[in-house]
Amino acid sequence: MRMIVDHISYTYKENKKPTIQDVSFEIKEKEILTIIGQTGSGKSTLIQQMNGLLRPDTGTIYYHGKDVFDKDYHLRDLRSKVGLVFQYPEYQLFESDVFSDVCFGPKNQGMSKKQAELKAFAALRMVGVPEELFYVSPFELSGGQKRRVAIAGVLAMEPEILILDEPAAGLDPQGRKELLSMLVKLKEEKNMSIVLVSHSMDDVAEYAERVMVLRDGKIAYLDTPKNVFSHKEELEAMGLSVPQITHLMYSVRAAGGMVDVNCHTIAEAKEAILKLYGRG
Amino acid sequence: MIKIKNLVHEYIRRDENDEVTDITKAIDDVNIEVEKGQFVAILGHNGSGKSTLAKHINALLYPGEGSVMVDGKDTRNTENIWEIRQSAGMVFQNPDNQIIATVVEEDVGFGPENLGVAPEEIWQRVENSLKSVGMWKYRKDSPNKLSGGQKQRVAIAGIMAMHPKCIILDEATAMLDPKGRLEVMESVKKLNEVEKITVLHITHYMEEVIYADHVIVMDQGKVVMEGSPREIFSRVEELGRLHLEVPKITRLAYELQKEGVPLKNGILTEEEFIKELKSAGVV
């Protein structure tokens, strides 16, 4: 258990209603946890607390058995181990070339120039940015490449937990697939825990091991995608949805076809429909 | 409504001595015609030239070669710029960068006010356009209290208040949650059907393309495919080579066809899919 979020609540000064209300969960080693919820459900606030940027009003967060909001705990330690990638991180690239930009984080952590460069090199390799792009200006890269560089900047600090807010937004289908597969690889090869805020139910079904559904600052569900997506009506009432394929299977069922509605992928749906045709 | 002829747009890169080091053709000899009242979707992977094309239609960029005519006006003629921008309004990706006023109705009134429209008429336009996107009841609210989808609808209302003939959505749904995307798409579809506004929708979401009656696919600055959504999405393998996908339902039908299940080509919606199952007698 890497992180335990223990009954945290948080209210923004200007609001009366709490944005986060008594939220508890844990983050395991080597897992992909996705957070879904409508705009305003508290997703962004929650991830900022997990990285110590916002301090909960009540409750606390334990990281490897230490209370991170204790006065003796250095939040700086937490921030280098829990990397946060904001939405559209490419807007935050600022150095004159790609390599310097990625070096910034580890240098800031107090590493020597040499050490920082080694980390930057490894991080850029990990996200698949080819060496010929290391010394060009970040502004000359494509959208997908810039996004990878920005993520490498966080990876260079070698976090154990990587939190990303909508990392695939605005990427084309191919770029989307590449980015998400890269996250799976980080989990598998580096034993990282990946926390992914996503609006795409299809991505959630395909990549997540666990899904957290936030509603008005509370956890409505925290379970496997299969179990969460079996609550179609409840999710729709929250302004969310089920994967497109699942939606179709519900419609087939409503039309009288006896299929398992809990299909999320094309492969699963294919088997189910073939059975209707008396095959497979 | 929009006539693009042999359009070329080059991005020129120079070194410190101002010598040209590289020329990239973002738009390479493009010909497009959009009829009045059409709903056109433009697809293409990142960097295929879609957004550059949109900026030409809005006269944010001028043609290097070729020409762009919007509602009969040439974008190369600088005197036409303001009329062109008024007749072709653009909605961008980030809802937070497009709203300027502190109250929704003032934001929507800003455009027509700038055009010198009389105050009474401004209020009439604000009312009509907020109603057309279903945001009238939020008129006294502060925009920063709205959700992403609601902000985008306010941005669209702001354009509607300028009485445009055409709306260009440049990945305007990319940052929205599923509900927000649906709200925006339904508002736009309604404007297209009821007010006969021409729509150009640039998107990465294949399932949004089914709202369109014509699809243009771009790759490396060129138009590589054109046709109805059904025609385009029947070409599954070809789209894959262009780093694009087909909607999940279309893909499922395609996979089933490969297994020998008799289905028609290019199924786009659940209704069509189920109709096929019904006619085969399996449901």
Report on the structure:
The complex is a heterodimer of chains A (280) and B (283). By secondary structure, chain A is of the alpha/beta class. Chain A folds into two domains: 3-229, Rossmann fold (3-Layer(aba) Sandwich); 243-280, no CATH class. Chain A has eleven helices and ten strands. In chain A, the strands form two sheets. A six-stranded mixed sheet of chain A has the order 6-7-8-3-9-10, sandwiched between helices. In chain A, strand 9 and strand 10 (218-223) form a beta hairpin. In chain A, helix 3 runs parallel beside helix 5. Chain B is an alpha/beta fold and 283 residues long. Chain B has a domain at 35-64 and 72-228: Rossmann fold. Chain B has ten helices and ten strands. The radius of gyration of chain B is 21 Å and the shape is globular. The termini of chain B are far apart. Chain A binds chain B through residues 38-40, 87-88, 140, 142-144, 166, 169-176, 199, 201-202, 239-241, 243-245, 247-248, 251-252, 255-257, 266, 269-270, 273-274, 276-279, and chain B through 13, 44-47, 93-94, 147-149, 171, 174-180, 204, 206-207, 243-245, 247-249, 251-252, 255-256, 259, 261, 270, 273-274, 277-278, 280, 282-283.
Count the E strands of chain A.
10
Proportion of residues in extended strands of chain A: 15-25%
CATH superfamily of the domain at 35-64 and 72-228 in chain B: P-loop containing nucleotide triphosphate hydrolases
Specify Rg of chain B, calculated over alpha carbons: 21 Å
Total helix count of chain B?
10
Question: How many domains make up the coordinates of chain A?
Answer: 2
What is the highest CATH level, the class of the largest domain in chain A? Alpha Beta
CATH architecture of the largest domain in chain A: 3-Layer(aba) Sandwich
The best one-word shape of chain A is globular
The oligomeric state of the chains shown is heterodimer
Number of strands of chain B: 10
- CATH third-level topology of the domain at 35-64 and 72-228 in chain B: Rossmann fold
Q: How far apart lie the N and C ends of chain B?
A: 45 Å
